[in-house]
Amino acid sequence: xxxxxxxGKDVFFKKGTLNIEFEGNKIEFISSELSDKHxxxxxxxxxxxxxxxxxxxxxxxxxxxxGFPWNTPSFYHITNNTPLQLEDWKxxxxxxxxxxxxxxxxxxxxxxSFKVEGSKTGFDGTGKGSxxxxxxxxxxxxSKDDWHIKQSQSVTRSFRMKxxxxxxxxxxxxxxxxxxxxxxxxxxxxxxTNIIQGIxxxxxxxxxxxxxxKAAQIKKIRVYCPSIRS
Length: 230
Known about the structure:
Blueprint: E1 2-6, E2 17-31, E3 40-45, E4 57-59, E5 88-101, E6 106-118, E7 122-128, E8 133-134, E9 141-142, H1 150-155, E10 166-173, E11 178-180, E12 192-210, E13 218-224
Antiparallel strand pairs: 1-13, 2-12, 2-13, 3-11, 3-12, 4-10, 5-6, 5-10, 6-7, 8-9
């Protein structure tokens, strides 16, 4: 399930280029010991830049670090219908339908409306908590069953949902198109760079090509191949 290639023993650079055929869905580079160089190397998987693989973009947890999921109104799952791009996202609660239980000083939220915006996509549509939502671009998909409102209320009695509340998240890369060796300060540790994660689990080719025509500062190449194939 995990295979490690030692550069200079199992695989080799020739005039600054290294080629490997591998099987798996994730690759890591382990930097050479005592490396103090930062020359960039271009990465190609199956002849394409890692950023060209739409599977290798991921959402962060909504409102991470802001009390998710108990203290802030939010949802816990996001999907998409169209390819993602690296950007920040924001959902703003624009109105709320609720009733107050005066004896318990708690609210019952029957519905709420919101708008969604991406830092690159721009305004991307409006929705309601009682309905499944797909943004105009298709980059944001939220199921009505994935809102974490009743669960939050059941745990945090002081929980309140207010007009103007904001939920934020990001699209982050599970790849790098250019490898720059990190500075190795402790040779007893592995300095790992994630090259790509999430490509279809099968046979692929990897090419690493340096700009100075010399071997890149890579000690090992580690390939992950889960037992379940795509």
